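Ticket #4471: structure export looks truncated?
Reporter: QA, pipeline team
Priority: medium

Steps to reproduce: submit the single chain below to the structure queue and open the exported record.
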Amino acid sequence: MSEGSVTVRTRRFVTNPLLGRKQFMVDVYHPGRATVPKKDLREKLCQMYRVAVPDTVQMFGFKTDFGGDKTMGFGLIYDSIEVMKKFEPKHRRKGLPGYKAIIRSSRKQRKERKNRVKKVRGTAKAKVGAAGKKKR
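Actual output as written to the record:
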């Protein structure tokens, strides 16, 4: 943390046993420097709450006040990675290690394949549908 000191405070701390997590608001005070990276904030929160696995800490929705110096956001600390994978939405799981994205063809290719299949009958549909797919 190079130029200025960074202070991290949490408020509205709630333990949510149904979702297996702790949820809270995060206030980051960073006078004289730009917004603090989430990676650094994750490390600080792991030290504050003695979290063994840093990947279970999620942060999102950060907004910097006009003029800088203060940023507010939302944080979650899950009990385990399995619970996090169960409840966390896909768009927030993307940056985590071990996340495998689904590789799909483009929307136009899928629509063209659908329309080709509509033109044939019976077992030929499988042949027409498989013709457009690439083997990996």
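Status: closed, not a bug. The export was complete when the record was re-opened. Leaving a note from the reviewer for reference: The two ends are 45 Å apart (CA to CA).
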